[in-house]
Design brief:
The structure is a single chain. The chain is α+β, with helices and mostly antiparallel strands. It has two domains: 2-96, Nucleic acid-binding proteins (OB fold (Dihydrolipoamide Acetyltransferase, E2P)); 117-418, BirA Bifunctional Protein, domain 2, CATH 3.30.930.10. It has 13 helices and 17 strands. β5 and β6 (85-96) form a beta hairpin. The two termini are 40 Å apart.
């Protein structure tokens, strides 16, 4: 007898296997029962009959409820119509009979489901989302390692803001005030002269009182920094990364995408076609033509990004935003100092921004003045400014929010499903 995972059943056709797992759904009719088993690796139908089980096991089977934990001994058979494998159960062990499952086969509101997130994670759709998330995480590491980046772990507790100080969570750090990190970018720039290409990947925190479907207060961010690169080279790395991530999901998660009923047409486009590019000014003109009342010097809001990206079948790089809209560390465009040498990558189908990046200001005096102009204290950033005194070079970088990418790739309506336990302005538990 072979102990197997559900994902490996195809390798054990007509063999007897043992499967440990949970009964995610069940139905019975007289002397036969059908269980949907979940073991973490996948789902499979188990068929139980009073004719093939001994009387004790059959009586035990009748007591089993949704989410009971079990072991089945079964013969693997192929579904007569579908490319699926079934388990013809011959013996049964019950680890625990579950109490009545609170989120069974009923329709529940999102607040109820989020209150029970610790249980909702077991639902087939939620299982599929987290499997895609896992693929995206692993593919991120693989892409950077294959492209000569070194992983640097930046701190979560910091004395500095990377961007807007109003978006920081303040914490008491002994006798000092500290913040939960918004981004690891500044610390990656410190590691740049040592390694040339660096990245980090971990939790970040933003105290934005936003109620949109794209915002969380705690999320996972990847930041990358590269020496001796201009904006064109920066965008090439970003495009390669997104193509690699989507390719990995298409290769590894077809079953999950089917569960999610995700139309993969656009995802396949991502891997095959070049991304679109336009300046901020061009995006404004296009948005105004589409009916938006956005002004020339305004940032693209969520509604604008949705309006613009619904028109396109592939991601869009929007470059050269007005400098006053962007962070202090962004370099200025060589031909127009009022513009930042930056780009946001907008996902198609209405999903909007998934990556933000720029050329970084490399000049000591310019960066010092810029920090002051932004109303920040130069002494708080002296260690960061110092980097421009010792071998400063042209360099750039970018960052992505993992949950936004998960949301787009999975075709979700709200970012809260893209992370196991969402943190928003109204939710701190479970």
């Amino acid at each position: 007898m072979v102990k197997s995972l559900i994902k490996d059943l195809k390798n054990h056709l007509n063999q007897t296997v043992e499967i440990d797992g949970w009964v995610s759904n069940l139905r019975s009719s007289g002397k036969i029962a059908f269980w949907q088993l979940r073991d973490g690796s996948g789902f499979a139908q188990a068929v139980l009959s009073s004719e093939t089980l001994d009387s004790n096991d059959w009586e035990l089977a009748k007591q089993v409820s949704q989410e009971s934990s079990v072991r089945v001994t079964a013969t693997v058979t192929k579904h007569p119509k579908n490319e699926e494998y079934e388990l013809q159960v011959s013996a049964l062990k019950v680890y625990q009979i579950s109490a009545e499952w609170p989120i069974g086969n009923k329709d529940h509101g999102i607040d109820f489901l989020m209150d029970n997130r610790h249980l909702w994670l077991r639902a087939k759709r939620q299982w599929a989302i987290q499997r895609v998330r896992n693929t995206l995480i692993q593919a991120t590491y693989q892409y950077f390692q294959a492209n000569d980046f070194t992983k640097i772990d930046s701190p979560i507790l910091t004395p500095n803001a990377g961007e807007n100080t109003t978006d920081l969570f303040r914490v008491k750090y002994f006798d000092e005030e500290a913040y939960l990190s918004q981004t690891g970018q500044l610390y990656l720039e410190a590691a740049l002269p040592a390694h040339g290409r660096v990245y980090d990947f971990g939790p970040t925190f933003r105290a934005e009182k936003s109620k949109t479907r794209r915002h969380l207060t705690e999320f996972w961010m990847m930041d990358a920094e590269m020496a001796f690169v201009d904006l064109t080279g920066n965008l090439a790395v970003q495009e390669g990364l997104i193509k690699s991530l989507v390719s990995a999901v298409l290769a590894s998660n077809q079953a999950e995408l089917e569960i999610l009923e995700r139309d993969t047409t656009t995802l396949k486009n991502v891997t095959e076609k070049n991304f679109y590019r336009m300046t901020h000014a061009q995006a404004i003109a296009e948005l105004q033509a589409l009916g938006s009342d956005i002004k020339a010097d305004e940032d693209l809001g969520a509604d604008d990004e949705t309006l613009l990206t619904k028109k396109y079948d592939n991601p869009i790089f929007v470059t050269n935003y007005p400098a006053h809209l962007k962070a202090f560390y962004m370099a200025r465009n060589a031909d127009n100092g009022d513009l930042a040498e930056c780009a946001d990558l907008l996902a198609p189908e209405g999903y909007g921004e998934i990556i933000g990046g720029s050329q970084r200001e490399e000049d000591y005096e310019t960066l010092t003045k810029r920090i002051t102009d932004f109303g920040l204290k130069a002494e708080d950033y002296q260690w960061y400014i110092d980097l421009r005194k010792y071998g400063s070079v042209p360099h750039g970088g970018f960052g992505f929010g993992l949950e936004r990418i998960v949301t787009w790739v999975c075709g979700l309506e709200h970012v809260r499903e893209a992370i196991p336990f969402a943190r928003t302005i109204y939710r701190l538990w479970p």
